[in-house]
Amino acid sequence: MNCVICGEPAVEIKEVKPARYRAETVEVPKAFFRCGSCKEEFVTPEQMRAYVRAVKNEVRKKYGLLSPEKIAEIRQRLRLTQSELENVLGTGPKVVVRWESGKVIQGGGHDNMLRLLDRQPSILNSLRQIQELRSVEKDKHAEPSSATDGHRQDVNA
Q1: 8: CB partners within 8 A, 6+ apart
Q2: Which of 6, 13, 73, 143 sees the fewest Cβ atoms within 10 Å?
Q3: How far is CA 130 from the centre of its chain?
Q4: How confident is the model at residue 138, as a pLDDT?
Q5: Average of per-residue pLDDT values in the chain
């Protein structure tokens, strides 16, 4: 690869560097190119993606959280799609996709729930029942009440 500044040949270097993710600092290997002539350092998009993934994986390890691969393994063992797992856990859309791709680190509560599902798959039925009840409750509150005859009332009146 040639230098993006002077066009001279650059060599790939790998060094362990400190990195910050939110309030955490971790040390991970970082690959980058250094120009032999002007000493400019630069990264390719692929190197940056790998570095960001490594930082997040190191933060997961630091907090004892499941790896993206383990999350996918648990979901597959439960025979759930990513969307179905999101529904069962009550997350937003595409959250499990982001966990499994390593783009987002799951919180401790969701990590605990995934571990419980892994150890006791039978709780999946309980979680589904909870979501069904929540859906019923949500639907009840979405219907206009008879007290207002379907008209919105000003709560400040």
Answers
A1: 2, 35, 36, 37, 38
A2: 143
A3: 23
A4: 81
A5: 90
